[in-house]
């Protein structure tokens, strides 16, 4: 039997597909910006690689509307691993695959399931990248967001409000990478010259979080009612 979350603000396949389509569009728009961030401390390909990967994801979305959440996330993960070069492909690919494992067979996901999937995604990145917070990587944006969601679980906030706080935490984490000394990845080779540059991985992670929030806000019942007034 397919598991169904009981949360009234549940995320469904159509929501996830809408998010992924919007994310592919946003990453195409941010391609040059992410590449510019990557130029002084990386291989100048972060934007190009993510645009390629999520364009490939977008091309497969038409066939995914009837799939469960886990299957959609696993499609994203395998597509990213096979199409995205550098570290971003394996790291983001692993994140989506781990999240897909948590939501396997589910047609809906409520607050608890979203938090569990987010934690699994983060743990996948930590294990695959052998990185921790403070090393000037995508973890510096993702970990605060996940911790914010976990702190809100079981409290008075609805999922959408908790997501707003999580995205704000991701943004703060992203901005905090600028003064950091890189100790992981390609940027670590530069030593002190890595200081003063915002990490492109943390930036793309924040972009993903912000697009997820924007999609949720647009598809919420309140947004629909507002559009009718």
Strand order of the largest sheet: 1-2
Fourth-level CATH superfamily: DhaL domain
β-strand percent reads under 5%
**SSE arrangement, N to C:** EHHHHHEHHHHH
Taking the sheet with the most strands, its summary is: 2 strands, antiparallel
Report the total helices: 10
- Uncertain residue ranges: 1-8, 224-229
Q: Which fold does the CATH topology refer to? A: Serine Threonine Protein Phosphatase 5, Tetratricopeptide repeat
User: Fraction of residues in helices?
Assistant: 55-70%
**Structural class given helices, strands, pairing?**
mainly alpha
First and last CA, distance: 41 Å
The shape, in one word, is globular
Mean pLDDT: 90
Q: Any idea how many domains?
A: 1
Question: What value does the Rg take, in angstroms?
Answer: 17 Å
Summarize the SSE layout with pairings.
Layout: E1 11-12, H1 13-29, H2 31-38, H3 46-60, H4 69-83, H5 88-102, E2 108-109, H6 111-129, H7 139-152, H8 159-175, H9 200-219, H10 221-228
Antiparallel strand pairs: 1-2
Helix pairs in contact: 1-3, 1-9, 2-3, 2-9, 3-4, 4-5, 5-6, 6-7, 7-8, 7-9, 8-9
């Amino acid at each position: 039997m397919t598991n169904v979350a009981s949360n009234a603000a549940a995320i469904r396949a159509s929501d996830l597909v809408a998010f992924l389509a919007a994310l592919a569009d946003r990453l195409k728009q941010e391609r040059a910006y992410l590449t510019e961030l990557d130029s002084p401390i990386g291989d100048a390909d972060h934007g190009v690689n993510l645009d390629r990967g999520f364009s490939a994801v977008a091309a497969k979305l038409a066939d995914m509307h009837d799939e469960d959440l886990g299957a959609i996330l696993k499609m994203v993960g395998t597509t990213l691993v096979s199409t995205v070069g550098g570290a971003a492909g394996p790291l983001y690919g692993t994140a989506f695959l781990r999240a897909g494992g948590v939501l396997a067979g589910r047609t809906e996901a409520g607050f608890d399931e979203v938090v569990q999937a987010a934690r699994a995604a983060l743990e996948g990145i930590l294990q695959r990248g052998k990185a921790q917070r403070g090393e000037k990587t995508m973890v510096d944006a993702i970990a605060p967001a996940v911790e914010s969601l976990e702190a809100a679980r079981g409290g008075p906030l609805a999922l959408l409000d908790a997501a707003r706080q999580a995205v704000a935490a991701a943004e703060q984490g992203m901005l905090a990478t600028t003064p950091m000394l890189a100790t992981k990845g390609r940027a670590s080779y530069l030593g002190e010259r890595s200081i003063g540059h915002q990490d492109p991985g943390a930036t793309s992670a924040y972009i993903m979080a912000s697009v997820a929030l924007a999609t949720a806000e647009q598809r919420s019942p309140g947004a629909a009612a507002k559009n009718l007034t």
